[in-house]
Amino acid sequence: MALRSEFEVLITSICLSGDANREARGVYLGTSMLEESVLSRQVKDVALIVLLVASLSANLLVLQTRWSVSDVWSQADRTYDYSGDSFPELYPVGDLPETHIVIEDTAHYQISTADAYEDWASMFPRGGGFVHLGRKSRPFGISMYHQLACVDNIRTTLATPFAERTEAQLERNHQCFNYLRQTILCEPELRLEPESDKLNDFGLNEVVDGLGVDHVCKDWTMVFAAVETNFATGSAYKTSYSFIPV
């Protein structure tokens, strides 16, 4: 309803702007005030119809995506029994829609602030990024969440005073660096990033920070939702798993 109201305000302002412009130019189109009012309402009605059609199309797309995911799962269940090597390479959720992310210098996801742990924890669905598949609810980790867990693990080390860091902690960081290095190389992104306008103000004229650059991505929120759904529907498992050895 809020979107509809905003749209009506926009259309009304356009109509009023057109009336004001005609009066300012002293142009008379031979249309009565009543006809002008009717015309204005017709424009708004047409615009609202367009908005409703767009909304309906979006809902149909969501339903189509859900049906597609259901078909993918049915096919996977018929093909694999999730024992030994009998499992798909990818978590079968269907094709992820395209989306965009503009890199920003957010105040969230800090290293050691009071909100840092909560911010980073919010990136993970229930179950920590693991899914349980097949009749025996076999656990599998999702690579995206393994990568995020590694970044969070390195963040935890940086938040630990230097004198308190352990060899085991540094070894886990080393494993994570290797994992992240190879997964980044697995999917090289060729997006061009210009020199930083922000850092130029500080005399750093040959620095690229990537801020404000638009990236074409896959919709990670659908992965989050799918993993959440798997957790919510799996009552046979209670064991917690981790990507990082403790």
Folded structure, characterized:
The protein is mostly helical and 246 residues long. It folds into two domains: 1-79, no CATH class; 81-246, no CATH class. It has helices at residues 2-25, 33-79, 116-121, 143-159, 167-186, 197-200, 220-233, and strands at residues 98-102, 130-133, 138-141, 214-218. A two-stranded antiparallel sheet has the order 1-4. A hairpin with a 4-residue loop joins strand 2 (130-133) and strand 3. Helix 1 (2-25) runs antiparallel to helix 2 (33-79) and helix 4 (143-159) runs antiparallel to helix 5 (167-186). The chain is globular, with a radius of gyration of 27 Å. Residues 1-31 and 57-70 have low confidence and may be disordered.
Feature tags:
7 helices; single chain; 2 domains; 4 strands; two-stranded antiparallel sheet; 246 residues; mainly alpha
Briefly say what this structure is:
With 246 residues, the chain is mainly alpha-helical.
User: Helix and strand string, N-terminal first?
Assistant: HHEHEEHHHEH
Shape: globular
Largest β-sheet summary = 2 strands, antiparallel
Structural domain count: 2
Pathway: Mycotoxin biosynthesis
Keywords: Oxidoreductase
GO molecular function, one term: oxidoreductase activity
InterPro entries: UstYa-like
